[in-house]
TrEMBL record:
The keyword Transcription regulation is assigned to this record: yes
Keywords from the UniProt entry: DNA-binding, Transcription, Transcription regulation
Protein name per its UniProtKB record: Response regulator transcription factor
Keyword hit for Cell division: no
Pfam families assigned to the protein according to its UniProt record, in alphabetical order: GerE (PF00196)
Amino acid sequence: METTIPRVAVELLRAFGDVATAPLLGVAEKLSDGLRAMLPHRALVIFTEDCTGRPQKKAGDAGITEAVTIHEMADVRRRLRAGDPVRTAVIAGAERDVRAWEASTGAVLVLCDADSPADAAVDELVETVWETTALHIRQLVGHADPSQPIESRAVSAERVRVTTELTERHATDLESFLAVLRGRAIDDRRARTAVADLVADALVRTKTASDVLLTVSEEQVAGAFRRLRADLRPLTQYGRLDIEFVEPPADGRALPGEVAHAARAIVRSAVLAMNDQDDITRVRVQWDCDGRNLLVNVRDDGRGGVDADAPALHMAQAKAASLGGGAELTRVPGWGSELDVRLPLDPPSPVDVAEWGLAPREDEVLRLLAQGRRNRQIAEALSLSENTVKFHLARVYRKLGVGTRAEAVALAVGAGLA
């Protein structure tokens, strides 16, 4: 008997496939393409606190995507958490017909100017796709290229934008207060009531925007550690591994967002590498802060047999290096393995590029490298062969005094070449 699969189900599966294979910066576009057949829309906007550098990911009409603010997205999330289905919202400064969903990760999806009537079945399908997408985003952030943390550190413009939004909102509120107080159309009692209502609304908006700004820019060390525990909970619930967490000081210095994300990713990578040993039963995870660095220690109770060449460990070491820190693995036969990590909390001091003595072509290669280009992409941009690019990179590494791609990217971004 032949089975007919509904077209909407086919589109759903296609959306799953496209999103699951998309890189981090391509998720919004692929998701928009996949959902458009089920729910036509002019623009798609994602707000996620998993990405400290670029908390918004957008696709569609530039008139919307270039003007939407984090404050607007945070307000949509607040309404969703209050049980509001959110069919209209102010997005990009205008009231629009929207559909909105929040995933279990806290990430929010908004489809703007959706031109089809509400359909519970379609909404449920989109919610399913969005939940998977949000988890995919979190996974991509955790396993991003080692240069991702330093890129996030360099993308301060997004934080400036959030601050600007907050400042402009304050100005608008103050102008509204003055307009009411100076107006002659209402008496003093009604004016006081109107201003009180405006102030209450303004305080809510200010608190929401301030919370978003802090989340984008930094995390309290204790809160960041709690998120790490939640990330590792599945290993303890469904596996044989017992993870001991040593809490950091509750009053420690706040962590820049990119440091907190990198630290969690490094610990996850280290724990997974250690868990591959047959004789391991316990891992101890400890965070501390000396005021200038986040200090991370991960130690197992195995026999010192963790694979030093494990890709997960290389990823952890590269992430630490990309932020100007380091990760050192110690293996003691019969006593276990230990990873000590140091992550600076402040960006590195500016570097004088001239001191590197780069040739013009080497400078071009390094700048493209700092933009996240792979060797093949650099070769295409400069009309070179990949072997020639590798030759130039080897000379660049030697002149910079580094041994890895991530270290070169960290220095280049710190010097303003990205």
